[in-house]
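dumping these here so i dont lose them again. two proteins, back to back, each one seq then structure tokens. dont judge the mess
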Amino acid sequence: MRLLLLLSSLVFITTSALEQPEVLVYTVATEKTDGLKRLLASAETFNINVNVLALGEEWRGGDTRVEQGGGQKIRLLREALEKHKDKKDTIVLFVDAYDVVFTSDLNTILSRFFEHFEDKKVLFGAEPFCWPDQSLSTEYPLVDFGKRYLNSGLFMGYVSQIYEIVSFQEVADNDDDQLYYTHIYLDEKLRRDLAIGLDSMSRIFQNLNGVVDDVELQFDDNGDALAYNAAYNTHPAIIHGNGPSKKYLNYLTNYLAKRWSSATGCFNCGDKSRLDLSEKSEEDLPLITVSFVISKPIPFVEEVLKALSEVEYPKSRIALYVFNNQKFNIKTVLDFVSEFGKEYHTKKIINGDEAISERDARNEALDFAERVSSDYLVFLDADVIITDKKVFHSLIEYSVNYDIGIVGPFINQPGKLFSNFWGAIASNGYYARSEDYMAIVHRKRKGYFNVPFLTSLLLLNKEKISAMKGAFSYSSQIDADMSFCKFARDKGHFMYVDNEHLVGFLIINEDFIENVKEGRYHPEMYEIFTNRELFERRYLHPKYKETLESEEFVQPCPDVYDIPLMSERYAKEMIEEMEAYGQWSNGKNQDNRLAGGYENVPTRDIHMNQINYERHWLYFLDEFVRPMQEKVFIGYFHKPVESHMMFVVRYKPTEQASLRPHHDASTYSIDIALNKLGKDYEGGGVRYVRYNCTVPADEVGYGMMFPGRLTHLHEGLPTTEGTRYILVSFLNP
């Protein structure tokens, strides 16, 4: 019995397969665009063979994005069907090339056609707009439910009927194809004789224009993504991003056609079957151009360039293009070029030339890359810190293995949602949050995603270097990077952000711009809140973390601890910032800066609040001094720290050389040496009177931490030569 059932099943399957009609799938594409490659990739996923007509030929059908046209498609399809026109059981499926994706196989498409449209010989997709001739809307027959108007981007039917339609009358290449099909559909006799219908409920064909709110992503039990039409409770098999809905199609196709699974993630991420650069010798690596651009005030450019110099891609295979229009960074760029310039394959440096616009410079980078025959061009903006030294290798491998021409790594501001890509664009052309933005930023969804805006760090392959010429000047009403992306969107060049690996982070520059405008001598000193990690790299003493983790602290006098806090650079810049401000007190008891107007133990000093640094230094004390205090003065906790007296003192023989014995008005104090004994000054030091113990206090960046009032009466010993600077803070008065 089981054998008979098995044989019966086999007979049924074989018979069904034999009865399945031949399906001819056609599209028209004169160029192999990103959209066409996407269509063909989705077709390959479902074993669909697409016949591409006119590839490599001249397009004479007009710019259908902005005007009527497309008649050339009708002529080409007619010519292709000529040899098939007499076949009785052959189905033709036509899809537009650049904005369509398959989500199901042909068996699914055919079964829905036969089940839901059994009385039809020809089926067109439907949409909510009567286009291109709105006056024809009243001539359209009513439908029971769903969309009423014909769309010519997706249709199918028996070859004899389709051939009759495309041969009905002569059509010029620049005539409108949708209008042609509309007139045939609106002719009641032709509609009846040819049995033409519309897929009004998107059972097979989904045209997105005007209905993007109805169509959403779903994932089935296997994790595969489906397009779901919530209005009609259908799962269309072919999706068409007609009109302005192309950006939404791009979003959907990040997941559809088995591109990404909720169960297994990205389908082909990590694939290196086409290219694995680790297998190539250094001299065989592709030649790349790196375009480094400083077009606005950015903090920590020195660290950015250091990170660039440490990228593990041989400089001999990099053509370097640098554009800087910021006076603040001229010396930094000069120092970088002086140190590393000779190592690069070739270079072009535009440093401090304000006559050249950012747009022109970025466009010139494209020309430069082409002139030097680069295989790839990397745009690197000055607000990107690279942490992955293999990032250039990865981007090249992504481009080749995923067959994508423009790709950039996901980069964001540390701890923030702000990143280098947009998931969607609002109607005004600016940022809108896509449904998946948070999942991509938090890397709950990993892979490579087609996005409408990408900036800061991105790679172009050779084809795109040529294709994107002039993109930065495409729209002068918006920023250069937005113009580039608008050009890409309008011309059909896909941009992908890849978040498989973290490769760096974005520098925050908003506060920095204001500090530069205010004339700060070292504006990076003010970045402790906005760019904490980079601030620590530059300004925290190299031994701070090691000391904090240890159990032993240097104690030169009883309850006086010597701890590393500030880097030598921080100390130097603090002195320079104070001297640039220049308004030192006169060292007298009368002091209008204080609430009572009187200073009991006056010094020549500048308070932190005078250079608008009080908030920043308080934060430094709370984040870096307080943890040290809690380890050495066990059992005392005070968070956050408080201080009303934070200042830099200047000692010199011709002004004030020393300070008489005194108690500080604090629970504990920090005195930090800012310059070097024997190099910058002679003499100095601190004597703790009660213990008759003297500390040289001469190691730059080290602070003496000691109790304030009651126990630690102390004096500043005379500075005999030069100028001595110390930074004093009275904590928790």
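---- next one ----
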Amino acid sequence: MSWVANVMISADHADAATVEALSYWLRDEAPRREQPGAVGVGSLRLITGPAALWGGAKRPECAVWAGALNHADLAALRSRVAAAPWQEPNAVQLLVMDQEESFFRLWMIREGSLAQYAPLAPSEEDVDFYRER
């Protein structure tokens, strides 16, 4: 059984090596949620490279990495992102949509701390969150 978290990181091009190091950590060392001692949850891949095709006539002019992480300990991921040696920390955006969530949560580094910028309400747990359910 899996528990997938969709994760994207947008960062300055100068921080590509930092994101790659984060990806290696995710693949080889990141702890799994509710599985003490188990490590490795997936990796990140650049989705805005030269071959990326999005809608419109232009190519993306940003650097975004994405991954579908399995059983990721998201608190550990946030701690790792917060502690990483970013060249341009104010440009870092971490977007996370965990299993059974319906929208991405946005985290950004401000004044040296990782803070959530997505509204916490309404939540998917609220009775009237979904219109048709």
